[in-house]
Task: inverse folding
């Protein structure tokens, strides 16, 4: 149901935003997993994506500054070619994987996901990318592995924000292995059918739609499969405010603000706040991963 295309897209094939909007007819549950959703007779919900301008101008990418406009202003100086991703740890085929080589092995598809920042704003983003599981399977996950750790590029000469120790660079994130292998978990390489702009995490970034946005680490250069829960940047910065799991949960407030509602970017001055959904609306798909866990404790 998710429209798939292969990675043979050329510049000429890239869909202009207008055409994207015209040909688009997408329903929420269909993104990726939706087959079972529809087969089960559940009513598909229409997700109206944000505009290109919303997605590319209102960003968090602290390596380029903490202002929402800083990434759009400064991330252009990040060199993204050549790019390779080191995959190491508990894998059968560790090594430096060239980004172009990765692309040639993966099937790029479109996924329209809700995106909810821990700061209580949200967007709907039409991503292009491949399942993280496909990449991990390419490297061959070994028996006994339990977690996956990720690192962003750390290149101070091109990243003015890293002059400030807001976070302990490089930016680091992590997932439990079953979260990483979940079919909703995406490695994004594009938005709106175009290559990912630098400010959104070029050339490839993680997207975990049921978790707060900071888990969706940008411009990934290293993926490590491990049996230990990996340290993560926001958790190291403030463990009381940012847990390892960071699943979107309207019933577990941030110590300094409520998580019950969200402000949809692009909604206009008079748009009301919208209720935040459990697991950001992906409860049916992911709740079973956390069966028996106290989600207030493992926040
Ligand atoms: N390397 C890196 N990844 C990052 C961040 C960051 O500062 N550095 N910010 C995170 C946060 S807080 C959010 S909300 C999302 C924002 O993604 P977007 O700008 O593409 O909407 O990226 C996440 N990934
Ligand atoms: Mo965020």
Result:
């Amino acid at each position: 149901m998710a429209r798939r295309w292969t990675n043979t897209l050329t510049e000429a094939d890239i869909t202009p935003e207008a055409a994207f909007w015209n040909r688009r007819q997408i329903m929420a549950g269909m993104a990726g997993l939706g087959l079972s959703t529809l087969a089960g007779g559940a009513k598909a919900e229409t997700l109206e994506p944000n505009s290109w301008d919303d997605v590319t101008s209102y960003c968090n990418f602290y390596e380029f500054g903490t202002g929402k406009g800083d990434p759009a202003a400064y991330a252009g100086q990040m060199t993204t070619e050549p790019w390779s991703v080191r995959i190491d740890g508990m894998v059968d085929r560790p090594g430096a994987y060239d980004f172009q080589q990765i692309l040639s092995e993966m099937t790029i598809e479109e996924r329209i996901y809700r995106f909810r920042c821990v700061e209580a704003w949200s967007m709907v983003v039409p991503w292009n990318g491949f399942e993280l599981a496909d990449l991990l399977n390419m490297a061959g996950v070994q028996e006994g592995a339990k977690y996956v750790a990720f690192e962003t590029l750390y290149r101070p000469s091109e990243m003015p924000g890293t002059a400030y120790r807001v976070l302990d660079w490089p930016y680091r994130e992590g997932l439990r292995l079953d979260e990483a292998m979940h079919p909703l978990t995406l490695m994004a390489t594009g938005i709106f059918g175009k290559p990912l702009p630098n400010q959104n995490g070029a050339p490839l970034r993680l997207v975990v739609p049921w978790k707060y946005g900071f888990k969706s680490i940008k411009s990934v250069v290293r993926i490590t499969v491990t049996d230990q829960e990996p340290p993560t940047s926001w958790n190291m910065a403030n463990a009381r405010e940012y847990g390892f799991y960071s699943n979107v949960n309207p019933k577990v407030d941030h110590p300094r603000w409520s998580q019950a509602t969200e402000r949809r970017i692009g909604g206009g001055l008079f748009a009301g706040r919208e209720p935040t959904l459990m697991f950001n609306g992906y409860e049916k798909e992911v709740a079973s991963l956390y069966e028996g866990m106290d989600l207030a404790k493992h926040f």
The first strand starts at residue 4 and ends at 5.
